[in-house]
Amino acid sequence: MSSAATVAANQDMLGQTCQQMCALMAERGLPAYRGRQLFQALHRQLVETPEEISVLPRAVRTELAAEASLQPLSLAGIFESLDGTRRYLFKVHDGYSIETVWIPDRGRVTLCLSSQAGCPMRCAFCATATLGLQRNLTAGEIVAQVLYVLRDTVRQRQQPRPAAVNLVLMGMGEPLLNYDHVLHALRVLADPEGLHIVPRRVTLSTVGIVPRIIALGREPDRPRLAVSLTAATDELRARLMPVNLTYPLEALREACLAFPRHPGERITFEYVLLDGVNDSEDQARALLRWLAPLRAQEAAKVNLIPHNPVPGIPFRPPKLERVLRFQALLRAKGLPTYLRRPRGQDISAACGMLAATSGPSAS
């Protein structure tokens, strides 16, 4: 390799844009178009090893096989739900576990991606929080989740390639605490020479890291924003989500009000309903009050998520009639409010259940 920088880049080859791959080939003294051929083979043709890229000279394939990391993830298990959801359990090179979820829905597919191994945010209702933070994922490890799942679907299962793929950064980790790698991974995935998953098909969910929300709003090409809220009073939210002690609700709301939106775009506020904790009519009214300035700008919508039970976490979902009453109170004030249907609950793949379990279900 021509430089230490090039070696470092090759070690995370899947985290390279097409332009970066062209530059790497040029540094090797090869025509830049060889980088485009490599990028397209990885992202469009979903090849797994350099040996499969027949358009590249044999010597280049041999060098790539020796030097480049095209398989930063190893599969530890695939768990399939009765509803069609699949949970992929991966190991990264240093042994940590991460998870990715395939969610099919009427011809469309959503991939739920992890941004960290574990999570540092300590949300009381989330299984991932029990792991703590192990490390940030590289851009290549984030991209690899998408490529592996698509490769498994198309090449192993012989299923049709999805016509449309949506991405949600809602798996393990707080994506805004891995800001640079997450944003670069999304640029790679949006590259028109590859999968071309454009920002409007990507949603990033955060617990509310206020400075990074502000920074994200300044990005020229950014994903849609979702905020995990779960309580509309500082006292309750601080108990459930310790991030509120650092970034309280007023600061979070100001960041959301200042967040630039495209025409018709709304910020999604995710509200995990916990029986007897945050599901009362008073809590619904508190949520309406907190969202009032955003409602006035038609800048908010709410996803209600009945808690998905996990052993060792002392919460349970409310009864359906209580959930529907909560939803009705919000809708009566004109707030778009949706009830999220749990997907993959039987394989520990639903919201709040990811904890790198090696069996179908944690129960």
Automatic annotation (TrEMBL):
**Cofactors required:** [4Fe-4S] cluster
CDD domains found in the cross-reference section? Radical_SAM
Active site location: 99, 351
Q: Cite the InterPro entries for this sequence.
A: Aldolase_TIM, Methyltransferase_A, RNA_MTrfase_RlmN, rRNA_lsu_MTrfase_RlmN/Cfr, rSAM, rSAM_sf
- Gene Ontology CC terms, in alphabetical order: cytoplasm
Quick one: which residues bind [4Fe-4S] cluster? 119, 123, 126
What additional remark is attached to this entry?
Reaction proceeds by a ping-pong mechanism involving intermediate methylation of a conserved cysteine residue.
Entry similarity comment? Belongs to the radical SAM superfamily. RlmN family.
PANTHER family in alphabetical order: 23S RRNA METHYLTRANSFERASE, RADICAL SAM CORE DOMAIN-CONTAINING PROTEIN
Q: What does this protein do?
A: Specifically methylates position 2 of adenine 2503 in 23S rRNA and position 2 of adenine 37 in tRNAs.
The protein's name in its UniProt record: Probable dual-specificity RNA methyltransferase RlmN
Organism per entry: Chloracidobacterium thermophilum
The gene name reads rlmN
